[in-house]
Queue: 3 jobs
Job 1
Amino acid sequence: MTFLPWLFPALALLAAVAIPSVAAVRRGRRYAAFSAIALAFSLPGLAVSYFRIDSWFATVSPALKTAFELTFAFAMAALMLHMTSMVKPRLRPFAVRLLVNGPGQTFLASGALAGAWLLLLLPFRLVIGLLGDAALLEPFRALDLLPFVLAVACAIASPRLRRETVPIALAQDGPDEVSRVPLHPHRGLRAPQPGKGVLRIAQVSDPHLGPWQSIGQLKRTLETLLACDPDLVLLTGDYLTMEGNGTPGALAKALRPLRHAEGRCFAILGNHDHEAPEEVRGALAENKVRLLVDEEALVTTAAGNVQILGSDYVRTDHAEHLEALGSRFPRQADYLRLLLLHDPQGFAFVADGEADLVLSGHTHGGQVGLVSLGLDWTVLSRSRWPDHGLFAKGRNRLYVHRGTGFYGFPLRIGVPGEASILEVTPAGR
C-alpha cells in the first residue's frame, strides 16, 4: 500500500483547507476562526511528529510502521468528522462519541502537546546536531511518542471523578490577603454523623454536559451525591457545552435526580450559562432547583439556619457587584451565610465578614498540576484565580471546586475532577 504513508498528510492538508471553509459557510465566522486557530496549533506538531516517528518505525519494524500510519490516518479522519460535526453541535450517541468525538478531540489535543514538546526538545537536538554525531539522538527518538501517550492517558483519566469528603472548619479571623488554607479531605463519601452540628453540602460545579459528560454520567454522579443525604445541594454554574446547548432538553434529563432534593437545591449561573440562559433556566425549573440570580434564599436544615446568596456571573466590576448584593440582602442573625460565586477571583472583593463560606468553581481546579500527587500546585497557582481547595481572607472562607466535568480537550493532567461532600463546621464549634 504505497499510498498509506501519504494518507495522513493528505487528510491533514484537506482538513486545514476544508474545515474552516465549511464552518464559514455553514455556521459563521466565529466558528471558522476558532477551527482555523485550533488546527494551526495542532497540525504542525502532528505533521512533524508523524514524519519523525514514521521514519523511526521504518527502521524498527515494517508492521509497526504500517500500524502507526493506519492509526494516524484514522485519528485524523476522526478529528475531521468531529470538527465538521460541530458545524451543527449536539450530543451524539455513545458509538459516535467513542469512535469520533473522543479520538478526534484527543488527537487535536495531542497535536498541540506535540508542537510544544518538539519546541522544548529543539535546543537539545540542535546541540547534538552541532556535535556532528547523529547516533547520539537515536536513544531519544522514542520521546516523540510522549505527547501522544500523555494525551491518551488524559482522555482515559480526565472524565473520572475523585470521591471525597471535605471537612471545612470556619473561623472568626484570618489573613489580610487571600491565602490557601490546608485541607485534609477523606477519600470516599462519608455517611452523615447525626448530632455533630455539621452542615453537609453536595456542590456540583462545571459539569459541562457534552461529549465527555453524557446525560447518563451526570445523572449517576448526582444520584451518588444525593445518596449521601446532604443538607444542601448547591450548583455553581457552567452546565453546558456547545453540544449540550445544541440538544434542547438534554440538561433537564441529566438533572432529573435533583427533583428529590426540592427545597434544598439551589443554583447560580456561570459564564457559559449566559450563552443559553433559557435552556438552563428551564432545566433547573423543571427539576425543582431554585435559581438565584442576585437573590437570597433562607433555609432551615438539620444543622441550623442557612442564608444563601446567589451571585450572577459578571466579567468585571466584581467589587461593586458584590457590595450591591450584600447591601440588598444583609446578614440574618443566627444564620450561617453562604455565597455562591461562580468565578473565585471575586472572593478578594468580598467584604470581611460578609460571607462565612463562598463556594466557587470556574477554574476546573487549574486542570494541569500536581494535585494527584498530594501537592497543591497547578498552572493557576500564581494567577489571580484561586485554583482549587480552601482559601481564607479575614473571617471569610472560600472553597473552589475542581469541577464535575471540563470543557473541550481532555487535558486534565494531575488535577482530577471531584464528586464531593463538604462537611462545614461553623466557627466556635
Note: The first strand starts at residue 161 and ends at 169.
Job 2
Amino acid sequence: MRVPRRAGRRTNLALLVLLPVAFATGWLAFGTGTLWPARVVVAAHAVAGLAIVALVPWKRLIVWRGLTRPGGAPVKVYGVALGVLVLLSLAAGILHAYTGPHDYFGLTAMQIHVGAAVAAVPFFVAHLVARRQRARPADLSRRNALRLSALLGASLAGYAALEGLSRLAGWPGGRRRATGSYETGTDDPAAMPETSWLFDEVPDLDPAGYAVTVRTPAGTRDVGYPELAAGGDEVRATIDCTGGWYAAQTWRGTRLDRLLGGVPASGVVVVTSVTGYQRRFPAAEAPALWLATHAAGRPLDAAHGAPARLVAPGRRGFWWVKWVTSVRPSPRPAWWQSPFPL
C-alpha cells in the first residue's frame, strides 16, 4: 500500500505537533503536584500519546518508502532511531499506566518511558534538520485543523474508554493516582522505594554530629538532631515521586517558620542537602513546610532522608529535599532555579 504524498505530509505535520506536545506535557506532569492540575496535564499527555499511536500505521508506510530510496544513510539512521525510541517510550508509558509498577530488564516502566523520550530528542532534532520542509499555506488550512481535531477527539475518547475499562476490569491502572503514581508504602516508611534525584548517593551521616545550619537576618545557628527530633509538629502528607509511586505518612518534626523564627521577609527560603541539591520556596510557604525526622512514628532511615528531610505537601517528591544541611533566606525570587534540579 502506498501513501499519497499529501497524506504523508499531513501525517508528518501531525507528528511534528504531537511529539513536542507529548514531551512537554510529560515534563509538566512531573512538576504538577496538586491533583486537579495533574489530572488535566496527565490526560493531555495521554491523549497526545494515543494520537501518536493512531498515526503509527501511516507513518510505518512513510518510513518504508523512505528506506527503500537509494542513499541518505545518515537520515535513515536518525529516522529509524527516532521511531524505535518513540515506540519504546509509548509502550512503556502504556504498560506503566495500566499494568502497574513492574520492572523490565532492571528498570521500571516509568524509567524506560522517560529515558526513551529524552534519548529521542536529539534524533528528533537531527531528523527535523535533515528533512527540513518549507511551510505551505495549505498546512494551516481549515481542513487540516479539522483532521487534527478529529484525531485528538478520537484519542480522547480512546483514553476515556481505557480509563473506564481499567476500573471495570480491576486493572492496576484503575487504582493509580491522578498523577499516574501507584501507592507503595503508605504508613510503612520502610516499604517506600529508596530513591534519590539523578546521581545523588545516600550519605553516611551520624545523628550525633549532625546539625542543620539555619540562617536568618538575626544571625546563624546550628540546630542539632536532638532538638529536631524533639519537634512535635505533625502533618499527614503524601509524597508523590516522579518515579511513579506515592505514599501517605504522618510526618513529625519542626515547621520551617519555627526554625526561622517566623516567616522570612526576603520572600524566599532555600533548603539545601548535604549533596548540594537544593530547592527554593516562597517564604509564605514556610508555615506549610516541615523538617521531618520521623514518619509513622518511626525515625527515618538514611535512604529516606535521615537524619532530617523536608516535607512539602502538595509538591512532587523532588521538592522534598533529603539530608537537609541548611535553611536560609535568599534575595533571589523562587522561580530563579531550574524547574527540575540539574
Note: The chain has two domains: 5-180, 189-329.
Job 3
Amino acid sequence: MKVKFVDLTRQNKIIEKEILNVWNKQITNCDFILGKEVELFEKEFASFCGTKYAVGVNSGTDALFLSLKAIGIKEGDSVIVPVNTFIATAFTVVYTGAKPVFVDCSEEDFNLDLSQVEDVLKKYKNKFNIKAIMPVHLYGQCCNMDEVVNLAKKYELLIVEDACQAHGAKFKNKPAGSFGECAAFSFYPSKNLGCFGDGGIVVTNNESIYNKICMLRNYGQKEKYIHLELGYNSRLDNLQAGILRVKLKYLEQWNQQRIELANYYIEKLSSNKNIVLPKVKNDKKHIWHLFVIRTKQRDELRKYLAENGVETGIHYPVPLHLTPSFKWLGYKHVDFPIAEKFSNEILSLPIFPGMTKDEIGYVIEVIQKFPWKN
C-alpha cells in the first residue's frame, strides 16, 4: 500500500461542483481583484475567529509582515519569536527592519517555552528594545495564551499571533487569532483551510489596525490614486476567496476528521516505548495540521516507512538560529538545546481529511514492524 503525506484530491472531489461554480462566476463577472468574494470571505472568516475584522492578503507571510507594520514595529525594535517554527515567522520581523529574538520551545507541546520568554525579557527587554511577541500555534495547537497575555501586560508587549497552522484551534474555548492585537493565517494549499495557490488573512478587533492593513495591502491607498503612505501589492485574489468560502463550510468537519485520526494514532502507538507521542491539554482544541512524533531513530524509521510506501515529513529539520540566513544574529549550537534535540527526532506522519482507516492502520502497522533498537 502507498500512503501519501497529504492527498488534497480527497477533499477536492467533495467540493468539485461548488468550486467549478465559483470559477464560472469569476469568468462571467470578471470580478478579479478585491471583489465581492473577498469581502464576503473576510466577514465569514472574522466571524469564524470571533473577531470584528479580517483583511485578505496574498500569503501568510504577508499577513505576518503587514501585522507587524500595522502595530508599528520598525528598525531598532526587536520581537520575541520561537526558534522552532517555519522560517517565514522570523523573516517577517526582519522585513520591518527589526530583529527577531529567539526563544527555545517547550518539551511539552513544541510551542514557546514561556518561562524562558520571561527570562529573556528580564535580561534584554530594554537592551534590545523588545516591543512585541509572536507566539506560533505550532502544528495546530495553541500556545498557553493566558501566559502570553499576562507577559505582554507585564512587559508592555504587543501580541501578533502566528496562527498560520491553527485554523479552528482553540485555547479555553476561545479561537486562535482572537487573543492579540492581530493574528495571521496562511491559506497555503496544504493548510487545514487552503486555497488553490497562495493566500493569507489578518484578523483583529482593532479598527485602526484593520484600516491600516487595508491600506498597506493595496499600495497605501484609502481611495483610488490617493496614496497616504508607502504600501504594497498584497491582495487576496477574488477567485481564491471564493474557493475559501466553499472550503470554510467544511472546515469544522475536516478538522474533526483530523482529530479522530490523531486519536487513533495515539491509541494504537501509545504502547510503543520508542516513540514520544504529542500531548494535548484539556483546555486546548488541537486541530492537527501536523501529527508529529519523536524518536531517536527518526532517520532510520523515515527510510523504512518510505521503503514501505509511506510518505512522511520533518517540520522542521533546522532550528532557525542555525540557518545560514540568520548567522548574522550571532547565535550558536547549544543556545537552544530543546529545539536542536527535537530537530533530530521529530517526524510528521500522514494525516489529512479523507485518509482511510486502512491507510492509517497500515502506517501504524509499518511503524510497529520497524526493527526497533531497544
Note: The chain has two domains: 9-103+110-248, 251-369.
